[in-house]
Amino acid sequence: MFFFYAELIHVWLLSLHGWLTVTVKIMSIYLAALVVFSYLAWIKCIYYRHRRTMVKSLKHVLNSSSSRESNGSDFRALIVTAHPDDECMFFAPTIIRLVELNASVHLLCLSKGNYYNQGAQRQQELLNSCATLGIPASSITILDHKKLPDDPKAEWNISVVCSAIVQQIRAHSFNMVLTFDGRGVSGHANHIAIHKAVRHLAASGQVTDDCCFLSLVTVGLLRKYISFLELPISWLLPSCLCCIIGSQGYKQAKAAMLCHRSQLLWFRYLYITFSRYMFVNTFQMIPQGPKNLKIY
Ligand SMILES: *[C@@H]1O[C@H](CO)[C@@H](O)[C@H](O)[C@H]1NC(C)=O
Ligand SMILES: *[C@@H]1O[C@H](CO)[C@@H](O)[C@H](O)[C@H]1NC(C)=O
Ligand SMILES: *[C@@H]1O[C@H](CO)[C@@H](O)[C@H](O)[C@H]1NC(C)=O
Ligand SMILES: *[C@@H]1O[C@H](CO)[C@@H](O)[C@H](O)[C@H]1NC(C)=O
Ligand SMILES: [Zn+2]
User: Fold this and answer.
1) Any stretches that span the bilayer, and where are they (predicted)?
2) Of 92, 175, 213, 258, which shows the fewest CB atoms inside 10 Å?
């Protein structure tokens, strides 16, 4: 009799153990799914929140105290890049969001991208890419200056870059200038030269009071290539402006990338798929120096 009960308990324990193992496995799968789902939901929340707050943060950047309902046409932005394709590789989320808000967006590209003697073709590709992003040809300026060659080994003359930018600001009275930061996203010397020039402009106070200067934050390798999964990190870290696009905007950015046919090597497709710059841009303010003080 006793042995009978012992055997029964043993069998019962064994099946309990089996059930527990299965339950734990199922639970951990559910838990993992929950974590993934929550993370994606968080990204979605950030995206929708951003859509509502972007105008507010733009106003904050411009320090405009006007309380009237703003419809975006108050923002006149100049994007300064070094080469055809910089605009869609690095600035697509910014351009797409600003155009969506009806801001007036201009592009100043400081070279024709003539490193491999493809200048003429790349210039046309730039026009196509900008049309895709929503910048009309009349709002694009492409320089072809012998002191500003497309060459990672060439030192660009800072004062030439400065005067090109100042000329644009004066001609169209922009109130925001957006460009690379000191690491130039990809570290290209031409990108960094533009940053130096803009820093100089900001510090020397040569331009009007109501123009602010913003630099595109360069992120590390890991953050750079985890696509939209990087979004919460960008959102949590302090920045003065954040531009985020959703799947619709991404399609537009991708179409713009595909306009640069001469640049479409296999690694470009990897970039389109994995780069965080296809979804989100964050900017820092470049500090401005004393106003109306001519330094040179
Ligand atoms: C923003 O504007 C107000 C006046 O409108 C001024 O007092 C304040 O100093 C400005 N802030 C910055 C950071 O320029
Ligand atoms: C946007 O605001 C400007 C004035 O600031 C006004 O002239 C224009 O009609 C407005 N546009 C829309 C679409 O509301
Ligand atoms: C931009 O302008 C168009 C037409 O002028 C208008 O329909 C649209 O609502 C505007 N968008 C924003 C975000 O103000
Ligand atoms: C930059 O160009 C200006 C004229 O455009 C020239 O005066 C200056 O010497 C140049 N600077 C350098 C470092 O080459
Ligand atoms: Zn470039």
Assistant:
1) 20-42
2) 258
CA 246 to chain centre: 13
Cα distances (Å, whole numbers) of residue 216 to 116, 136, 155, 197: 27, 23, 21, 15
Residues in the chain: 296
Q: What is the pLDDT of residue 195?
A: 96
pLDDT in tens, 248-293: 999 999 999 999 999 998 899 999 999 999 999 999 999 887 754 4
Q: Domain range for residue 94?
A: 53-63+71-285
Q: Apex CA 210: angle with CA 203 and CA 62, to 5°?
A: 100
Domain count along the chain: 1
Q: At residue 237, does pLDDT exceed 80?
A: yes
pTM: 0.87
**What residues have a C-beta under 5 A from ligand 5, the ion?**
82-83, 86
Torsion sign over Cα 77, 124, 133, 285: negative
The number of the ligand 4 atom at minimal distance from the alpha carbon of 163 is: 5
For residue 71 and ligand 2, the question of a CB distance below 6 A is answered with yes
Q: Is 160 in the pocket of ligand 4 (CB under 6 A)?
A: yes
Q: Is residue 295 part of a domain?
A: no
Tell me which residue of 171, 151, 155 sits closest to 163, measured CA to CA.
171
Provide the token pair at 16.
């309990």
Ligand 5 centroid distance, CA of 80 (Å)? 11
Locate 143 and state its tokens. Answer: 């320089």
Please indicate, yes or no, if residue 8 is contained in any of the structural domains: no
Flag whether 226 is in a domain.
yes
User: And the tokens for 121?
Assistant: 């073709």
Mean pLDDT (the chain) is 91
Q: What pLDDT score does 66 carry?
A: 60
Which residue type occupies 276?
Answer: R
- The alpha carbon torsion through 55, 56, 58, 63 (nearest 10 deg) reads 140
